[in-house]
Design a protein that fits this description.
single chain, alpha+beta, five-stranded mixed sheet, four-stranded antiparallel sheet, 13 helices, 15 strands, 19% strand
């Protein structure tokens, strides 16, 4: 039990008038508006707690019983010591305690002591102190155990030692590991001791996990390259390739931090050509078998690639709500429809490039002059193309044969362009698949932001916004599917 008389710096069993006077004095002294010491606010709250306790007659009665019991026990021990050893009475240790059993870095602990029948009291942290008092201790550095030693000199000069041993709170092993590493490397970043994610740059990944991720990303890069060659969605696929490249670099970065040989040499990954050698080395370099300044030792992984895919799909399925599954599934469906439509061929009819022109907007301070480029086929079909396509066809004569393909509904699907000498071909798309149409780019950016919302907005007060965003994305994806199909 806390001796609140000590907190208010008054004798035990003091009357209410003394309690009130001490409270007024200390509350003025330690009020946060007056005292700018970082401990003042905490001590001010403790003073109020002590006052509320002591002004309650029932609680004060219980404290008095406790103090009488402690004094009686101390007196009994003193009498026994005098009888057996024929020495002067030992000091009366009425109170020597802290308000915590375990501590963390940054914690404040209230130390209290109340000693009588002695000459001098010395506390290891504070030096010589009054016979009774309180003091707040802030734990600023990591240590596995913290010992507070109080030395009391009795009236006959005999020294009595008392100690309080506190242990570091081990309830969070990751935090303990971080504090241990920080004691050795003060510049360590705590972000590396947070959960590692596929899209993140922090923490470490082991060799087998690294191999599976690199194979997965390599397959996606290959698919992206094939569609880049076969379709006209080159801008979108190029941006997708950049994202995949960034994810690949993120895995290399985390894997380098997992090895003793390269954890402090990640800058090698920025050296052209030599970084390919480092990437190859990371496939066979062993994991550093201990916690290091870049995170915890990663969990061992023995999955084959297909087992890894199944395990990942299972984890994603567990963490996705039904709304999230429908919304993100609609994005996958949209791209499936786009790629199917882009790969379908139709009956083609020869046609001629009959005209071309440009449209120029009025100049403005905000955007300057905007130029749109158009090609006209058979005096009927006007196609908006990029400046590069316009120059290739009109000025460089890169293509000299054209064929029109129509869907069953009669809508123009694409115009195939061919160079009769080199047999090089390309397609001018219409609608969603048109190179100048930003819909698919916006959808891709929307999906990336959706992944961020899914991973980060998980707090109870953020779920309503996250669900609203999922619904907004779903509507956008469904619109894209309808536009693509019809």
């Amino acid at each position: 039990m806390i001796n609140y008389y000590v907190v208010l710096e008054i004798p035990n069993f003091s009357e209410e008038t003394v309690i009130k006077k001490a409270y007024r004095k200390l509350s003025k002294k330690y009020h946060p508006d007056v005292n700018k010491d970082p401990f003042a606010h905490t001590y001010f709250l403790k003073i109020n707690e002590a006052y509320d306790f002591l002004m309650d007659a029932n609680k004060r009665f219980l404290l008095h019983q406790y103090l009488h019991t402690v004094q009686h026990a101390a007196a009994t021990n003193s009498q026994e010591t005098t009888h057996v050893h024929q020495k002067a009475a030992a000091p009366d240790i009425l109170l020597f305690a802290v308000d915590k059993k375990y501590f963390k870095v940054g914690d404040y602990m209230l130390l209290q002591w109340n000693v009588s029948n002695c000459r001098r009291v010395h506390i290891s942290l504070l030096g010589d102190v009054h016979f009774s008092g309180t003091h707040y201790i802030k734990m600023e550095h990591f240590t596995e155990e913290f010992i507070i030693l109080m030395t009391v000199e009795a009236t006959d000069g005999t020294l009595y030692k008392y100690q309080i041993k506190l242990l570091y709170d081990n309830s969070n092993p990751v935090q303990v590991a971080f504090e241990k590493i920080k004691a050795r490397f003060p510049q360590v970043d705590e972000i590396h001791f947070k959960k590692e994610t596929f899209f993140g740059m922090n923490a470490r990944i082991n060799g087998n996990e690294f191999k599976n991720r690199m194979l997965f990303l390599g397959i996606l890069q290959a698919i992206c390259l094939v569609f880049f060659i076969l379709t006209s969605l080159k801008v979108i696929l190029f941006l997708l390739a950049l994202i995949l490249f960034w994810l690949t670099f993120a895995q290399l970065y985390k894997r380098a931090h997992d090895t003793l040989a390269y954890k402090n040499k990640v800058y090698y990954l920025f050296v052209p050509f030599y970084n390919l050698y480092i990437a190859a080395q990371l496939f066979k370099t062993p994991t550093e078998p201990a916690v290091n300044e870049f995170g915890m030792l990663p969990a061992a992984s023995k999955y084959t690639f297909w087992g890894w895919i199944q395990q990942r799909m299972g984890i994603i399925n567990q963490h996705l709500t039904k709304l999230q599954k429908i919304s993100m599934g609609s994005f996958v469906l949209l791209w499936l429809v786009v790629f199917i439509k882009a790969s379908v061929t139709y009956d083609e009819q020869p046609m001629q490039l009959t005209n071309h022109y440009t449209e120029t907007s009025r100049p403005s301070k905000q955007s300057g002059i905007n130029v749109d480029y158009y090609l006209v086929f058979n005096e009927k079909y006007a196609v908006n193309v990029s400046e590069d396509q316009f120059n290739q066809i009109v000025h460089r004569k890169a293509y000299n044969r054209f064929a029109l393909a129509k869907e069953r509904s009669g809508e123009v699907a694409y115009i195939r362009m061919t160079n009769s000498e080199t047999q090089q071909t390309d397609k001018l798309r219409f609608g969603v698949l048109q190179s100048s149409n930003p819909l698919l780019l916006l959808v891709s950016l929307l999906f990336l932001s959706q992944l961020y919302v899914w991973q980060n907005l998980t707090a109870p007060n953020e779920k309503s916004f996250a669900n609203g965003y999922m619904i907004f994305a779903l509507v956008f994806y469904l619109y894209g599917i309808l536009v693509t199909v019809f």
